[in-house]
Amino acid sequence: MKTDESRKRCTVLIARPTPSGVDLASLQRLADTVGAEYALLDQGEPSIHSRLDEAATRSLAVTLVPLAVPRDRYLETWIARSVANWRETRETRLDVTITDGVDSTSGLTAAVEHLASQPGRAITASPRAFRSPAWSDMPEHDRHILICRGPRCTAYGAGGVFRAVQDEFPDALVTPTGCLTPCNLGPLAISYPTGRWHPNLTPETISDL
Ligand code: FES
Fold this sequence. Notes:
Layout: E1 9-15, H1 24-33, E2 37-40, H2 48-57, E3 61-66, H3 73-89, E4 96-98, H4 106-116, E5 144-148, H5 151-156, H6 158-168, E6 173-177, E7 189-192, E8 196-198
Bound molecules: FE2/S2 (inorganic) cluster.
The site of FE2/S2 (inorganic) cluster has 12 residues, from helix 5.
């Protein structure tokens, strides 16, 4: 974890993947450029909890930067709630602060103005790519398992559960989802055709899915 040793403080950029994912290489480059680490609120890892655990191990204060354009109030709300949950579930005291969002900076306005003044480049994508034949194939599967990767389940370890389910059930259709609602029972999944809920999962307790 990169630190400002003189301040004993580290900075963590917090992003939130879209349903189609997030460009982690680009996020890593940005973090490297500004001397920070990154974490993901949901849908991926490292989680906010794991970054705070790292910082606590090294006795570092933490500044969190919500990284969303346009502003994402869900991101900011759940960063705060994740920190509150981390504090409630750990013995350690940690100085954690949060900055304003990226949209609050004049630099963002200047960057958008600069781009808007450009002619742009030609778009050369083929229309065939919009309807690839592969997207007519309905995948065979013996069951459909929906695994919540919302912010609370992410904090409770949904990433490890997701990977374990993919390994354990190669013939299943495994779909990550946003919040499925019974968050206090996370990490959780619902599987079909039974329609059964599977609460409080760990990589060791997925066998009855
Ligand atoms: S975050 Fe998983 S059920 Fe809400």
